[in-house]
Every structure is written in structure tokens, then in C-alpha cells.
Amino acid sequence: MGHKENPPETQDEVLYGVSSTVLDNIRIALDTKRYKHLRFLLKELHAADVADVMLHLSVEERESFLEAIKAVFDPNILIELEPSILTHVLDVLDINALAKAISGLNSDDALYIIEDLKEEKRQKLLLSLPAKDRVIFEKYLTYPEQSAGRLMQREIVCVPPFWNTQQTLDFIRDTAELPQNFYDIYVVDPRHHPVGKIPLSHLVKAPRDNVVSDIMAEEIHTIPVLADQEEVALSFNHYALVSAPVVNEEGRIVGMITVDDVVEVIEEEIEEDIRLMSKVSAASDFYDPVLLTAGWRIRWLLITIVNTLIASYVISRFESSIQNLTALSFLMTINAAMGGNAGMQVVTVVVRALATRTLREGDTWRAIRKEVNVSLLVGLFCSAVLALIAGAWLHNWGISLILGISLIFNILWAGFAGTFLPIFIEKLGMDPAISAGPLLTTTTDVFGYTIFLGLATLFLL
Prior knowledge:
By secondary structure, the protein is mainly alpha-helical. The protein has three domains: 20-151, MgtE N-terminal fold; 158-278, CBS-domain (Roll), CATH 3.10.580; 317-460, Tetracycline Repressor, domain 2 (Orthogonal Bundle), CATH 1.10.357.20. It is 65% helix and 6% strand. The protein has helices at residues 20-31, 35-42, 47-55, 59-69, 76-80, 83-92, 95-103, 107-114, 119-128, 131-140, 148-151, 165-174, 200-205, 212-215, 229-239, 259-278, 290-316, 319-324, 327-355, 364-394, 397-427, 432-460; strands spanning 158-159, 184-188, 194-199, 223-224, 243-247, 253-258. The strands form two sheets. A three-stranded mixed sheet has the order 1-2-3. Helix 1 (20-31) runs antiparallel to helix 2.
């Protein structure tokens, strides 16, 4: 009797991704070169799960893995890979394998892969594609990065307004070059301008002889092909869109964007903002080389070094005061820390408001007034609490009063600067998420030390 394969391990213990048991079995099959068994283990896995497997493999294991599965390689795996892993995989795959993978993807997913290739390999891949596909992708690549033109897919369902429901359904059934997944049918005039849309669910339920123009919704939100992808995401969120047609400068429909593409954009924007607020870069990835990650992090820590040197210089100017009243040495850190933390709360709120366009031009001074008022209340509460604690601790109500007064002023400054700096930085065309934080913490540190030590020197010594 022949050997019968055991069924792959179940995924019961995990909601998504692969379980540690499955991953261990895949590693064992890879190490023992049981490639047939390896392919059997992968047979029931989703493309995203296979991408998850590749994420946990070493560089050498990943290359062996690709060699083992190249005959049954699912191109959808490529679009599920983390960017750093995708770069490596694209370097490993040859042109023929890439061309085969591209042919099995929607145009937007195929473009995502093509634009990630190095220039020389990209040109070779484009030359290996049929002329019709090559022209389309070359046109896509002329659109700016992170624009709707790069995000859209070419495959789209368009029908004239004089068709009836039955004709439209027959067209959908009989046409091969349609999107793998779509939600709306777009109605276009003779110039190919979108004039309405029909949700697929409405079309299926409509009587066969209904004319398209009678059942279509005329309200349609079009996306300019050059629109920034962040603006596209905000539009989808604002109008609760599932899909939207993309139009060129003449108003002709050239593609569509679906909600799954927008979700990816939102994830990218959120991840970018988190990295920038944390002062790390796209290279600060668990799976990136050590030297690359360390280099990016050092860049940002150099800014912190400058900030701390400025603050240290301010402190040095009050050296004699600190020697005469040692309590100043530990109380001054409270003032600076409270101001910095209060300011970062404001910066986070303002940067988010700017990113989501909820803070618009003309709202600047209203936002500043609101945050300064909030900071006044926060400052009064925190200064009262900390002044009472300091007074009871040190039995020195003079220094506790100085601490409370300086803390109010520093938190007020944090509220003003935390609102003004991100808005001002964005007006200069810079990214407030990356610049506002270091500037704010520098000013709250310097201002906090100066006012606390200055008042203490003036009134207590």
C-alpha cells in the first residue's frame, strides 16, 4: 500500500495566520527537503497565511521555500507580503515567474508588484508582457505615486443607460475581462462619462425588462485620477463608499477603486503616523537587517541629543541656585515632564485632526483658544496636587508655590504650542507628525526649567 498523507493541521487555535504547529511542520518539511509534503501542507492555506509563513522564515529558508513551491505558486501571495519581504521575494523570482504571476492578478494588484521592482528588472518584466498589457502598465506608471491612478484597477463593469436588466446580467455572465470582485455597475454615456451606478444586489433583484436608466442611482462620487490616495480614503469614509469610479481630466471613466484598496491605504497612513510620532522609520521593522534599522533610529536619536544638550545648558546657568537649594534638582524634572506629556497629548489630537481634515483653514485660533482653556484647567488641577505633595514632603511651602506657578505656565505653553506648531508646520509643507513632537518637547523642557529655576532663584535665594 502507498503512503497516505495525513491531513494538514487545523487552524482551530488561531483566528488568522498560521498556528505554531503548522509553522513547525512546514519548517520540518523544508529542512528535510520533503517538498511534496510541504506543498500538501500549504494546499489548504489562504494566500495571506502563506505570506505569514514566509514572514517567519529566514532569508535562506525563504529562498528554499520559493524554489519548492514555484510550480504551484499563487500570485495572490505577493500582494499579501510585508513590503520588506516582498522586496526580497521579487529579487529571487525570475522574470518568467513574475510575468506568470502578474497575468493572474487584477491590474491594481499587478501594478503594486511592478512598481516595487528595481528599474532594470521592471523594464525586463514589462518587455516580457503582451503589448496590450505593457501599454496599460506604462500608462499607470506615469501617474504620481500614492495617487488614485496608481490605486485604481482597470477592470470595471460599464453599461449604457438604454440597456435593460437582462442585457446587463447577460453581459456580466458572458464577458471574461471583468474584475474578480465588484460591487457596483457603472452607467456611462456615449463619451464614456459616468452618469450613474447600480449596486450589484439591486441589479440582481430588479425585473428583467427594467431599463438601466430607471433603476440607476444618479448620485455618483467620482475620483480624479490624480487625487492623492489619502484624499481618496477620506472621501470613502465621508460618503460611506464601497467603490468609486476614477475619471481622467476629460471626465472619462478609466478605472475604479474599491473599499479593500482604501482599507490598505488607511492602514499605511496610520502606520506611517505611528512611526513618525515614535521617531522610527519604515526600516524599523522586526524583519529588516540590524544595521539598516539601527541607522534609521540613530538619525532620530540625534535630534533628542540636541534637545537634551539645550536643556542641560539651561540647567547649567542655574548651577549655584541648585547647589544652594538641592530640592530644585529633582522638582525641576516634574515641571518639564508634565509640560512635555501635556503638550504631546495636544499634538496627537491636532495631528490626527489635520490628517482627517476635521481641522480646517480658519479653525486655527478657535482650536488654540479651546486647547489653552483646557490646558488652564489641567494646569490648575495638576499644579494644586503637586504643590500640596511637594509642600507636605519638603515642609517648604515657598518652593511648592513656585512649583505650582511654573507648572501652570508650562502646561499653558504646552497647550498653545501643541496646537500652533503642527498647524504652522503643515502650512510650511512639512509633516507635523514628524516635526512637531521634537520641537514641542524642546520648548517645554527649556521653558519649564527656565521659569521654575528662574522664579526659585528670584524669590527663594
